[in-house]
Specification:
The protein is an alpha/beta fold. The chain has helices spanning about 10-25, 35-45, 60-70, 85-90, 105-125, 150-165, 170-180, 190-200; strands at about 5, 25-30, 50, 55, 60, 75-80, 95-100, 125-130, 130-135, 140-145, 145, 170, 210-215, 215-220. The chain has eight helices and 14 strands. It starts with a strand and ends with a strand.
């Protein structure tokens, strides 16, 4: 079940949002301050965050920036601040939507549904764990905040690994798919060279992504 983080210091409204989100088929977790939200976000997987702008210990804008610097979680602002510059600031920070109070709970739930549906579609083509980000649609790769270059063969490997996370891809499967997807013919030795070169670009002591299953193939464990 998708989890929604509700960050709202008005306890009555927070409880109403949690109830409505639950009735909508999602799970919800509450926070009443920036600090509480950060603690929850750091420990629990969140599919979407609904943020108030005015919070007791800071602004939702700063919280949004902090969240998106760690992982790409959809954010929806829900606030009484309806000035044009505030709305634009929310969108500039990467928020998916900006809803002003008072609001319709039915419309809010529909907006949440639309954002999550779009996010699910995008998540199939994006891998992002805060350290490594691979966008399969744009063929862009980022490690620790820095762009890095991959060869066409390396990118095809990345695509196969990410689209088949956790599955064992045998040597023969990878060789066949690389050839089918427009790559130059590679044999098993060339495959190993490309995988090792790719691991050298994306892995370090604290980040392992590709496991070599001896005698069989490779598996994405990121």
């Amino acid at each position: 079940m998708q989890k929604i983080l509700i960050v709202e210091d008005d306890r009555e409204l927070n409880a109403s949002l949690v109830y409505a989100v639950g009735k909508g088929g999602y799970s919800a977790v509450s926070a009443f301050s920036v600090r509480e939200a950060q603690e929850i976000y750091a420990k629990e997987p969140v599919s979407l965050a609904v943020l108030d702008v005015n919070l007791p210990d800071g602004e939702g804008f700063g919280l949004c920036r902090w969240m998106k610097s760690r992982k790409e979680t959809p954010v929806l602002f829900l606030t009484a601040r309806d000035l044009e510059e505030d709305v634009l600031s929310g969108y500039d920070l990467g928020a998916e939507d900006y809803v002003t109070k008072p609001f319709s709970m039915k419309i809010l739930l529909r907006k949440i549904e639309v954002v999550l549906k779009r996010s699910r579609a995008e998540s199939n083509s994006i891998f992002d764990d805060g350290y490594l980000r691979i966008d399969l649609d744009s063929a862009k790769a980022v490690v620790n905040g820095r762009d890095f270059a991959v060869t066409p063969t390396e990118f095809r490997l990345l695509k196969e690994f990410i689209l088949n996370k956790g599955q064992l891809l045998t040597y023969n499967i990878l060789l066949d798919r690389l050839w089918e997807n427009g790559g130059q013919f590679v044999d098993r030795h060339a495959l190993a060279v490309n995988v090792n070169r790719l691991r050298g670009k994306i892995e370090d002591e604290g980040h392992r992504y590709i496991s070599n299953v001896y005698g069989m193939g490779y598996q994405w464990i990121g």
